[in-house]
Amino acid sequence: MIIYILVLVCVFGLAMGSFLNCLAWRLYHEESLWGRSKCPKCHKNLKWYDNLPVFGWLRLKGRCRFCREKISSQYILMELIVAGLFLLVFLININFNLAQIPDLFFYNDFDWTWFWILLRDWFFLSSLVVIFLMDYKWFIIVDEVSLSAASVMLFANLLIGIPWYNLLIAAGVGAGFFLMQYIVSKGAWVGGGDIRMGLLMGLALGWPNIVVGLLFAYFVGAFWGIALMLAGKKKMHWNMLFKKKGPPSDEVIEESALPFGTFLALGSFVAYYWGDKIINWYFNLFF
User: Fold this and answer.
1) Domains of the chain, residue spans
2) How far apart are CA 2 and CA 102, in angstroms?
């Protein structure tokens, strides 16, 4: 019975991975979310069984049924990664105590509070996945995801009893931090999407975990940027930091920009589950 539940969670995660891949693509290309899936090359409608997570890609050997163009391995990788993350979130919500599963689902009265928290966490994870993917591929954080997720997380967190003033402080810190950079640089350092992402982080993480999420994102982003510069794949445009103001050109973005929303999504996930532990570890080092 325990294995049955875990398999169901993984299958659900695979289906969500497939959906989130599709969602990110359609949001970026401003396509309807309700139409049938098409090959991005020949634009022919795919068969329903071609869209089966993992198995559809494997059955077609990574190529379109009609034009035989390659289908990016991103699809199967994202499906597997999201399935693993959904399983991880489920295990975190039961404190990795597999023996608790029968009690939750079969033997006792169903715990709707626990289930609501699990759905909230899966929703937040799904939002982070879309933000991670879209910013990594196209350097964009769309309001349809960030603001919708911020609204849902505010409602969900208030419903489970997180104080409104805690969320308000965290939202002010998250959004205000990026808003200040946006005003000072006139859009050279961060974009409007980062401000909305900061708002989402604050309403999801609360105070003081918002600080952990931001610091983690900046540390990881800095190390990644340095690694890319050492590898000759990125270069620093110092005038964007100290002289020129305003949104960067496409050339500057290609040469030096990092998909910072990707790192913010990673920082949000880490702080969401381990922020308190990281804060306690840090203060125990000095106090």
Assistant:
1) 1-110, 125-287
2) 7
